Every structure is written in C-alpha cells, then in structure tokens.
Amino acid sequence: MMETFEESWGLLEVILDTEKYKVKRITIKPGCQLPDTLHTSIGVCWTVVFGDGIIVQDNSELDLTYGTWWIIPPQSLYMAKAGSDGLVLIQTETGIFSNDT
User: Which are the contacts of 7, defined by CB distance < 8 A and separation ≥ 6?
Assistant: First the structure.
C-alpha cells in the first residue's frame, strides 16, 4: 500500500519501502522548494521525470531537467526548487535506515 503525504511544497508518495531501500515520487509545485535535508547514513538518487528546477547541494547550485539524474551521498546537505511547470522526482534511497536518517 502506497503512503501519500501532502506538504505545503507538494506531494510525497512512498512507492516502495523495504529494509534495504526506499522509492518515493516527489512532486514539487511550481516555484516551491523542498526543505533543506541531510541524511547521516543513506544515499539518495534523484531522477527527473517531469519539469525542471534546481538542486542546491553543499552550497553548489545545479540545473535539474527532464531525464537527468543526480546522486546525493550521505552527509550531504541538499534541497530542490521547482521551475515554472513544477518538478517530479523519483527518489531512490539506499543505506542504513534509522530514525535519525
């Protein structure tokens, strides 16, 4: 059963949740952004499946466009901001999951 969380910035859908990995669909409303995030023991891979925007990772800003992907290692501070059409990401998380990740 898929979990869905409505947030002020958009929608977070947990597609798959196992002990070793998680898959989420993140839909960011046009012009909105995710909060700053830092995981201590998991890595994240984002694949852009709709729209465009930017990612800010460890104070570097990079463009996100349809079909691109980005890897975010543990201990890296990151956030994403959607462009004028919004942004949809598929997020795959791997690592050691605990309450502080």
Answer: none
What would the mean pLDDT of 22-47 be, rounded to a whole number? 95
Q: Are 72 and 47 in contact (CB under 8 A)?
A: no
Amino acid at 75: Q
Would the pTM of this model clear 0.85, i.e. be above it?
Answer: yes
* Domain ranges, ordered by start, for the chain: 3-95
Scanning the structure block, which residue is given the tokens 């700053």?
36
Residue 78 near residue 42 (C-beta atoms within 8 A): no
Q: Pseudo-torsion of CA 35, 38, 39, 43, nearest 10°? A: 90
Architecture of the domain made up of 3-95: Sandwich (2.60)
Contact predicate 84/30, CB 8 Å: yes
CA dihedral 13, 100, 73, 96 (to 10 degrees): -90
Which residue, among 65, 22, 61, 15, has the nearest Cα to 41 in the 3D structure? 22
